[in-house]
Amino acid sequence: MNTIAVFGGTGLLGRECVYQALKANYKVIALARDPSKMLIPTGSGGNLADKPLDNPNLTVIKGDVTDQAAVDAVFDMSKDITGVIVSLGGKTKYVGPTMLTDGTANIVKAMKNKGSTKRIAVVTSIGAGDSEKQAPIFFKVLMYTVMKDIFSDKNNQEALFINPSG
Questions:
Q1: How far apart, in whole angstroms, are the C-alpha atoms of residue 150 and residue 101?
Q2: What does pTM read for this prediction?
Q3: How far is CA 42 from CA 11, 29, 59, 76, 103, in A?
């Protein structure tokens, strides 16, 4: 059975990723600052939504993605991690201004060190990277003002993959 590692698995989109991977018979290893937030997603969870997600194929490790040792622990849990989903988020004031970049860099470093995982999917936002021109004007106002720090971090996170050294 193949394994998927999910970072940010307790967020709204992350929960859905974890849930769908389990439904597709994957093993899932998730790193979470607060494992108690690993809940059945609102979207496809139906009347079970927001109840604890308990599945024998799910392992949740308590830790922070900005801690390289915690990220490494995820990859040490299984030799057959075939894919990684990065669904990090949160308000900058709670996670710090560079959590996306630092956390994703830690994930990429662990993947390279382990050598067996080749696929990564990173959830970002309209307006980040080359999609900036596609964002609606009212959203651009938010991006350049209230959300300036988070978009700076998102752009730096994307650069980890787009730059020649990525």
A1: 10
A2: 0.91
A3: 11, 20, 20, 31, 26
